[in-house]
Structure formats: C-alpha cells, structure tokens
Amino acid sequence: MKRFYYIATLVAALFASIPVQAQEEAGNTQQQQKRRGPEASRGARAEEKKESSMSELTVRAQDMNERMTQQIGNARWMRVIYRQIDLMKEPNAPLYYPTQPMNGQMNLFSIIFQLVCEGKLHAYEYLDGYEDFSDDRILDLKVMLDRCRIYYEETPAEGKEPVSFVVNESDIPSADVKSYYVKEAWYFDQNNSVFDVKTLAICPILTITDEMGQNTMPMFWIPYENLRPYINTTYIMTSNINNAMTFTLDDYFRRRMFQGDIFKTQNLMNQPLQAYCPTPDSLKREQERIENQLIAFEKALYLQPDTTQLATDEDGKKSTKKATIAARGQKTKEVKETKTKTAKIKAPKAAKTQSSSAVRSVRRR
User: Fold this and answer.
1) What gap in Å lies between CA 197 and CA 183, rounded to an integer?
2) Which of 76, 206, 244, 351 has the smallest count of CB within 10 Å of its CB?
3) Which domain holds residue 228?
C-alpha cells in the first residue's frame, strides 16, 4: 500500500513540473528573440514571405504543362522572331497593371520576381541572340539584385538551408519594367500538318532613371514553358469595356493578344533590323515586309491560287471576249454590206401603163 502511495505521489509531481518547464522554455525563447533584435525580425519576415508564397506545382499541373507544350523538333520550316512589347500601349496594359499587389492581383513582373526569389523559377543570363538555357547560365540572384539596384535583406544560412534574400513589396521595381522582349518561333510541322506560333522566352526590360537620364536594361531570360504553370491560373482583365476576368496570362500569350514590334530576326550575322535599316521609315517597311512574308507562307500552305495568275487569266478572258465581240461586229457589218450590194444589182421594175386612154375592143369593131 505504501508503495502504491509513493508511485502516485511521484506521478503527480511529474505532471506538475511539465507546465513550469514549458513556461521557462517560452521565457527563454522570448529572451533570445530580444537579444537577437533585427535578426529575429528578418527571420520573421522571411517566414511570413514563405507562408505568403505561391503554392507548389501539383502533379496534375505538371502533367497539363507537358501536354500543352508545343513540340517544334519535327518542324520542317521555322523562323525565330524577336518582338518588343511596349506596356504603355493599351492592348499591352494587362501585363503592367496593377503595379503594386492589390486585392490578390499582381502584374506579370511581380509574379516572375517572386518566383525567382523563392527559387521556384530559374532566371538565365541575357545574351543578345545567343540564348542559352543550360545550368551554366543560371543567373545568381544576388548578382541580379545588385545589378538592378534592388534593395534586399540577406538572411544568413542556417544548417542545410542556403542563404535567402528578402525583398519588400515596395522595393520590387514592378512600375519600372515598362517593356518586354518576347522570343517566338513561327514553325510548320509537316508530320502533323500544323502551322503555329510558339512563345519561347520572355525578358523583362528595366527602366533606370539616374543622373544620366533614363536607361533601359534587359534583366534576364525566362523560358516560357517553365513560367506557364504559374500563370495558367492567373486571370486578368483584357479590356476596358468588359471588366470580367475571363482570360488568363497564358491565354494572353497563346492567343497573341499583345502588340509587339519586330526588332530582330534570327540570322547568321546576329544583326538587328536597325543595323541595316537606319531610318524609321526603312525600319517600318522592313517590319511590314517580314510580317507579310509570314502571312504569305501560311496562305501558300493551303494551295490558294496565285493572284498574279488570276490577273493574267482575267486579262486573257477579257481580251478573248473583246475579240469575240469585235468579230461578231465585223461579221454583222459584212452581212449588212452584202445585202446592200444585192439590192443595188436587182433590175428595176417595169413602168405601169397609163390607164387614161381607153382601149377599143376587136369584137365591137
């Protein structure tokens, strides 16, 4: 009996010491946070940033992205076009507004920047005409932030976790990215009988204002196939008349709802259009010529008749018709002349005898 009493007393003392120990640990944690000061606040902000980050891709989203990827390896004809999208134009405004996150809505650059900072999306170095999306060309986040003069807080590595960078929403230069470079491929897949356009990569262009004035700087390349799963569910308003958000950012690019000017085509010498089109008029004519070439190639795939041949055939029909009409007129004229000649050749009619003088009968005589 005494032994049972001792055991019960020991168990009660053990349960009574647990709340006291928990309170002591909570007090020690608070004291450590006070001692750390700004480091603890940075860590808290980093945790909040992780909680508010975009969700991870599900298996279904990855499978859908693979099915929506356009394969251009079997293309028998392809032309790579570089366009510049000016976000100050009204058709391209859905990529620019809102410049600050509002009501759960973010513009395209805010989404890209957040994905890059969280390590869910790799940014690649900007190479003019020689884009390389291999692991050797992945851009270091710290180098990019320093180059673009973006303020950030560096959180030191803890254990196996790497060094992280925290950027406040007010420091993200969403309003300073006023244009994009878009690399697209116009291709014809003979095996599938498909003529289509594929968006290959996107490059945000940062506008920097300093003592020297305004300067533009391409930041980095983002492969569109890696970005599509995250913008496939981001709905945007595409018109000032219809405020319903019925299209996503992926629809905006796949349907080519933007307006972009051609500034370069892939060529052996890697020359932009301005290298051989020095004047604005010549540059505009060259852009129109390239656009017409793409349209003409697409139309030629469907065996449409040649307009020059149609014009020649039409002229031949008109000339034949004119010749037939002229021949008919000449024949009618000849028939009329023959009838006139025949009428002239006929003998004149005999003159009628005068009935004034009476003729005497033989019988009477």
Assistant:
1) 10
2) 351
3) 59-271
